[in-house]
Amino acid sequence: MTSRTFRGRVVTADAVIDDGAVVVRGDRIDWVGPAAECPDVDPAVDDEAGPAGPRTVLPGMVDVHCHGGGGVGFPDATTESAGAAVRFHRRRGTTTMLASLVSAPADVLVRQTAALADLWRSGEIVGVHLEGPFLAVSRCGAQDPASIVPVDVEMLDRVLDAGDGAVRSMTFAPEVEGVDRLIDVLADRDVRGSVGHTDTDAGTVTDIVRRLAGPVSATHLFNGMPPFHHRAPGPVAACLAGAARGEMMLELIGDGVHLDPETVRTVVDLVGPDRVAFVSDAMAAAGVADGPYRLGALDVTVTDGVARLTTGGAIAGGTSTVLDIVRRAVDESGVDLVSAVRMGSATPARFLGLESTLGRLEAGLRADLVITDDRLVPVRVVRAGEDVD
Fold first, then answer.
1. CB of 310 closer than 8 Å to CB of 97
2. Predicted structure pTM score
3. Are 238 and 174 in contact (CB under 8 A)?
């Protein structure tokens, strides 16, 4: 089997190799280390990535919260058009992703989950994320309040059946009516729970997190929940403490719109990169021009790359990619490169249970690589050993 070698500044899970090499055979990584020790090729020659210097080799990014991109939104896409959104993010470094839906009537959720399940079966995505509809109306953000309902187990069963195993995570508010039944269904169906769009207190969040089976996350921490207050710590404090105890993974949309760069740095300092996942929360407008869009049933206006509901002005998802957020964490939050990359790849991969398959530059794992320039802008993407167009 022919090998391919990629040389440059190589970022592994725990170090930066300034002059490193990654050898790929087939769809797997065969070797990673200093170029001078590369077993297959003369380290002075590299036909794949050019000479050592400004290029950086990263693992493929993993996005566990994404509503679309490239002009296409998952909440209203067909299987074919949804594939265009997946390819948009892939070309920009996200080689693994969940496709996220928003609160909607049962028939819409069934239809969209079934459409996305086709992409899951073909391996284009690793699953579906349901953001709602069992949320707090008071913290709906860019979710349609008319579609937010108490827990309806029959409705949820219909959606999960339509996915036929594709649904991997679900965001819900811990205070929603019927939450006990919801916890049982998520456990029975092996769906990861994520706390979000909630107006409850810290104690309720802590209790729910400890009752959920399997990995638990916080959906875009700080956004869609009351701010931290010293006499009313709320969900933010409970999620930070849960992550510090090793019980949760925290999503951060570090795009400079949803969070201040210092907030990103503070959370990473508090709980560490193994408990934080950078997510894009991207909607259809990611990568395309400003203008009018839709997020589910709601109108969105994008101005200067910032998406807001046309009526009300709430932030309506992001327009960045995960690699954009990794770059911003390094440049503006002062996060070290290894940690930033880990939060864009290894940590979300572990949340999905894929840590033995992808998310790191390590021998035996799937050959997902992003080759960037010296500013972490992607110039080449490889997925499962194949170049991404």
1. no
2. 0.96
3. no
